[in-house]
Design brief:
With 312 residues, the chain is mostly helical. It contains twelve helices and no strands. The termini are far apart.
Amino acid sequence: MNAQAQPVRAKTLLAFAIIYFVWGSTFLAIRIGVQAVPPFLFAAMRFLAAGFALYGWVRIKGERNPNSRQWMSILLLAALIFVGDYGLLFWAEQRVPSGVAAVMLATIPAFMALSEIALLRTQRLTVRLAIALLTGTCGVAVLVSHSLNLGGAPIDRAGAVALIFGAISWSVASALTRKLPLPASKSMSSGAQMLAGGLLLTLAAAARGELRGFHPSAIPLEAWLALLYLIVAGSIIGFTAYLWLLHHQSPTKVGTYAYVNPVVAVLLGYFAGGEPLGTRTIVGSLCVLASVVMITTTRASKPAPAQVEVPE
């Protein structure tokens, strides 16, 4: 038993290390890339390549293509996740430090909780959840407030608003995922969404005029390396590790990446990216992370009996 358990334990530790540290480091890689390449175009390059690779791999394995109804769902989710969330994240990282961007996106569980209350009705507002949401709101306020004298400049408001909208877009997509018709294979669903997202990001980049005057030969080596890292490590390897963990560990344990990634991103941004780490960033980040821990460790609270819908 021990001999058989050791390889599985080693794979588990490696998979957690990947979703903790690799995903946490992608925020700095994004910042490096968008300093040289327009943001929506850089995001399109990442997800087109990763989408083609994953979609092609599952097709080679014999997975069936999505049907027309599933493709409509995939396009909607791709617009929310890849344009609404990632597109805004890449844009915001031109204006906001990568570590703070990761902290702002750590509010996703808060908006997911609100989505479950308002859209799915699988959750209700409890005192603990209300405190968690208030704590997260205070953390965001600390990061953007001009009135608090905590040292260091508040983060760019336009960037902060973009990140909040990105977090909302992701949470709405997560709620809709449970209701929309999608392929049974998670790999096919994710590959198709990445591919569709890359195409939509390309259209968004064209609409913003990012393709005019752009020449790949002008991209510096560090931006190409950042893109390669995002495609291979961040998307393909990270996604594979995440899917493997979902089949071998509880969702609660896997979900701990939500409050490890921001810590990794903040520390990496400070030590490797030269980003400031003052009292404002520390206090705001701690409030947001405390909110995330409270939300992700709260047991789902069923709505009142009168609100329960009878399944069809």
